[in-house]
Specification:
mainly beta, 286 residues, single chain, 17 strands, 1 helix
Length: 286
C-alpha cells in the first residue's frame, strides 16, 4: 500500500492546491485507490456590508470567505492478460463552495490505459469521459440587494457541464551508464470545447503539448524539467508572441519514502506567477 500527499502554493501564494491519496494492491494485477483534492483561494474580503445603513464606510463590517473545489476520487486499475497493458478508471464526486453565496454538487468519470513495451511507455486518459455535471445552487438572499443596487444580473440555479478531454502521452527510457538513467516524455492534451487558446487549433479541437525529461541517479536522486503552457498571445504592437511555462524539480527516494519538489514558470515567461509544489510518498511494506 502507498500513501502520498502534495501541497502546491499556486500563483505566488494566491491559491492553495492540496492532495491526499492512497493505493492498495489487492493482488498482482488489481489495485484500488482513493484520493481527496482541494483547490481554493482563502481569506477573500466580503465588502457587501462595508457601507452601513447611514452611508458610512465601516471596515469592521468586512468579513472573509473562501472559494474552494473539493473532489473525491475512487479509482480502479488492472493489468490485462496482454503483456504490458493496464487499464483503469475513476469515479469523481465533486463539491464546490463559494463562501455562503453558492454551492455546487457534481460527478464524473475518468478512463485510462497504459502500455509498456521494452523501453517505451504509452498512456491515454479520457477525462470526464461521460462529461462531468455540476449542479449550482445560489443563495441569492446573501447578495440580492447589492446586485440590484449595482445593476448586476442575479445568477440562477443551473447545471455546469464539463466536456471530455483526451490526454495522450509517450515516454522512453535511456540507460546512460550503470548508475545514470534518463527518461524523455511528450504529451498532447486534446480539448473539444473550442474555448482554449492552445498552440495548435482546429476549431473546435485544440491541442496543448507538454514536454518533459528526468535524469535518475541509481534509484535515489532525480532531476526533472519540462515545458508546457504554450500559447500565442497578442502583445501591445498587435503582434503574436509565443508564451511558455518552464518548470524544474528535484526528487529524493530512500527505502520506502520519496520526496519531490518542483518550481513552475521559471524566468517568469508567462503572465501567471510562479508556483511551488511539494509532495511526499510512503510505501507500506505490508
Amino acid at each position: 500500500m502507498e500513501a502520498s500527499i502534495m501541497h502546491a502554493n499556486y500563483f505566488a501564494g494566491l491559491a492553495q492546491y492540496d492532495y491526499l491519496g492512497s493505493a492498495y494492491k489487492i493482488n498482482d494485477s488489481t489495485t484500488l485507490g482513493l484520493s481527496v483534492i482541494r483547490f481554493g483561494v482563502d481569506n477573500i474580503p466580503n465588502t457587501l456590508n462595508l457601507i452601513d445603513a447611514n452611508g458610512n464606510v465601516n471596515y469592521d463590517r468586512i468579513t472573509y470567505f473562501s472559494i474552494a473545489d473539493y473532489a473525491f476520487l475512487f479509482s480502479f486499475g488492472k493489468k490485462l492478460k496482454i503483456p504490458g497493458l493496464s487499464v483503469g478508471g475513476s469515479l469523481k464526486l465533486i463539491y464546490r463552495q463559494q463562501g455562503k453565496f453558492a454551492q455546487a454538487y457534481g460527478f464524473g468519470f475518468d478512463l485510462g490505459a497504459r502500455f509498456t513495451k521494452n523501453k517505451w511507455q504509452f498512456g491515454a486518459v479520457l477525462r470526464d469521459a461521460s462529461s462531468s455535471f455540476n449542479i449550482w445552487v445560489f443563495n441569492t438572499e446573501m447578495f440580492e440587494q447589492a446586485f440590484i443596487q449595482t445593476n448586476n444580473e442575479l445568477p440562477e440555479n443551473s447545471v455546469e457541464i464539463t466536456l471530455p478531454k483526451l490526454l495522450l502521452g509517450a515516454a522512453r527510457n535511456f540507460k546512460i551508464n550503470n548508475k545514470l538513467y534518463a527518461l524523455v516524455e511528450i504529451d498532447l492534451d486534446f480539448h473539444f470545447d473550442g474555448a482554449h487558446n492552445s498552440l495548435i487549433k482546429f476549431d473546435p479541437v485544440s491541442i496543448e503539448p507538454h514536454i518533459g525529461f528526468e535524469f535518475r541517479y541509481l534509484k535515489n536522486i532525480f532531476l526533472r524539467g519540462g515545458v508546457n503552457g504554450f500559447q500565442l498571445t497578442d502583445n501591445i504592437d498587435a503582434q503574436q508572441t509565443l508564451m511558455l511555462q518552464p518548470s524544474a524539480g528535484i526528487g529524493f527516494s530512500y527505502h520506502n519514502i520519496s520526496f519531490d519538489y518542483a518550481l513552475t514558470d521559471i524566468g517568469d515567461l508567462t503572465v501567471a506567477p510562479y508556483s511551488h509544489i511539494f509532495s511526499l510518498k510512503y510505501c507500506f511494506n505490508l
